[in-house]
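Thread amino acids onto this structure.
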């Protein structure tokens, strides 16, 4: 068999060929690179769950413009037509770039693969042996206005209850021929395109980041769903060992959905800065987890629009399912705000109760139903998936870590230069990253292993985290200095271009003399700033960032350490 690197695997995944890849059980040692994850390449391997998720949309005139196409060559044309329609609906006339369109289609395919599991499970529960029968077409559930309400005033759920049939002996495998309605498929594609359009053009918290988080969440969920420890193990025992997650397609769908939307409309500045600026969102969201709540509200409100009624019908068929969806969406996205000390402390208590109960906890659990503790464990695992996926670049290949680390620095540097950051990231980047690994990333990776549902992926994440931390300690100072200098140089070039544009504008208005004075003053200030920047000393003081980009000082002696994605 052919063995490929993580970079090659990423390229294949982005090209829609991720099903060709089989990850090796453990990282291998590569000269000069340390431990690296590699994959076996099986180009003839089929992907049953995606056979009906190939995004082939066509016009057949029979059901409001969309139907399944039998001609693969029409796929690109019709997908482009659906995308163009969605962009037009949100007043974007220039369409999307080829790269963004590819990401939109790729994220849509991931979401549809989990949506097909939902349909197959419902068909099975209803005794329907016909895999081509889509419940989205026969679902007559109409959400009430109360069902559609999203409220942040209620206390966040400690646990989201999971249905009893999560421990069924039957596993939600997608049968060949299973499908959702053509309208729902078209609406899913449009929904992803709309969400993509609402991500801002910031260096880090953009649609590329959302896609990377979705890919990581998909990987972890797939490991949970295939977590067999022996050939004798059946689906029911896997479901019990994974707290029902492996057999709950609705909950799985919510996680990849949350990954896609978790940073939508992120401004590229931390929550603390939004509070400091008295942003109107702060009053609306009580100055707590402002960016995360904004993302949740956007994603939910758009999903509840009438144009996505068929997609709604494919996702949930009753109020109870809508409630679970909404609760999990809020729990998982809000979990990414690790700078929220109150929520972080509560999370520690919940984790201790679920996975390391005291004698008193055991007695309390005996009086409760056993499914309560299972649901608590499942909810915590979902939150861990979201947190780990949000910072997954720190637990992947060294080159992946460096790429996203540079983007994060660029975003924080840009915010600081614009007066929207409390601390200059140039002063602390090297030490801050070490603190982030020691007090957040590595403990998080250990939790993935501790909960016992991810198989070899948990050790893989931990090994990468430890290795990246080691390499950053050895090479990070030089990397940070170069990153700072490159960013300063780029800022200087941008400022010079801005000065030239300003002078051109003044000349056009007949104000040449004023323009000359303005230009001299501007270049002088740029030179002074550049001299200050070149003398920047990358110190050892530890700083870190929360998952919304909030920079906070890190006291290395404190118990809780925070940083960003």
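Threaded sequence (565 positions):
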């Amino acid at each position: 068999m052919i063995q490929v690197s993580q970079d090659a695997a990423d390229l294949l995944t982005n090209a829609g060929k991720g099903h060709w890849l089989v990850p090796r059980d453990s990282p291998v040692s590569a000269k000069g690179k340390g431990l690296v994850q590699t994959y076996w390449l099986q180009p003839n391997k089929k992907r049953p769950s995606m056979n009906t998720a190939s995004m082939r949309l066509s016009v057949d005139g029979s059901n409001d413009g969309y139907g399944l196409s039998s001609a693969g060559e029409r796929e690109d044309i019709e997908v482009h037509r659906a995308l163009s329609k969605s962009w037009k609906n949100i007043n974007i006339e220039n369409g999307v770039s080829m790269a963004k369109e590819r990401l939109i289609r790729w994220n849509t395919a991931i979401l549809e693969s989990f949506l097909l599991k939902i349909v197959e499970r419902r068909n099975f529960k209803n005794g329907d042996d016909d895999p081509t029968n889509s419940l989205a077409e026969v679902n007559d559930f109409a959400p009430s206005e109360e069902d559609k309400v999203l409220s942040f005033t209620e206390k966040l759920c400690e646990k989201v209850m999971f249905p009893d049939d999560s421990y069924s002996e039957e596993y939600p495998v997608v049968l060949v021929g299973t499908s959702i309605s053509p309208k729902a498929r078209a609406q899913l594609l449009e929904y992803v395109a709309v969400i993509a359009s609402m991500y801002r053009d910031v260096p880090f918290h953009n649609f590329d980041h959302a896609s990377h988080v979705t890919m990581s969440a998909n990987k972890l969920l797939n490991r949970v769903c295939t977590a067999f420890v022996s050939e004798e193990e059946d689906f029911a025992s896997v479901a019990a060992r994974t707290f029902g997650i492996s057999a709950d397609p609705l909950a799985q769908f919510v996680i990849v959905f949350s990954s896609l939307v978790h940073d939508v409309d992120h401004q590229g500045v931390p929550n603390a800065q939004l509070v400091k600026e008295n942003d109107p969102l702060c009053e609306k969201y009580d100055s707590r987890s402002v960016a995360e709540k904004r993302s949740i509200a956007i994603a939910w409100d758009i999903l509840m629009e009438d144009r996505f009624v068929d997609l709604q019908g494919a996702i949930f068929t009753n109020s109870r399912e809508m409630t679970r969806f909404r609760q999990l969406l809020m729990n998982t996205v809000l979990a990414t705000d690790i700078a929220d000390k109150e929520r972080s402390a509560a999370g520690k208590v919940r984790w201790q109760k679920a996975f390391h109960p005291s004698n008193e906890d055991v007695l309390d659990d005996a009086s409760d139903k056993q499914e309560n503790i299972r649901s608590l464990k499942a909810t915590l695992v979902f939150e861990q998936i979201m947190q780990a996926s949000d910072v997954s670049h720190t637990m992947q290949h060294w080159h992946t870590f460096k790429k996203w680390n540079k983007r994060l620095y660029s975003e924080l540097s840009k915010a600081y230069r614009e007066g929207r950051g409390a601390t200059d990231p140039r002063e602390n980047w090297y030490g801050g990253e070490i603190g982030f690994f020691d007090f957040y990333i590595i403990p998080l990776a250990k939790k993935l292993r501790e909960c016992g549902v991810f198989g070899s992926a948990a050790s893989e994440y931990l090994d990468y985290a430890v290795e990246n931390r080691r390499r950053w300690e050895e090479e990070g100072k030089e990397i940070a200095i170069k990153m700072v200098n490159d960013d300063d140089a780029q800022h200087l070039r941008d400022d010079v271009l801005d000065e030239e544009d300003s002078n051109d504008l003044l000349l056009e208005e007949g104000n040449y003399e004023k323009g000359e004075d303005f230009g001299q003053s501007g270049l002088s200030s740029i030179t002074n700033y550049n001299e200050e920047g070149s003398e920047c000393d990358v110190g050892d003081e530890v700083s870190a960032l929360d998952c919304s980009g909030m920079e906070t000082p890190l006291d290395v002696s404190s118990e809780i350490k925070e940083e960003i994605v």
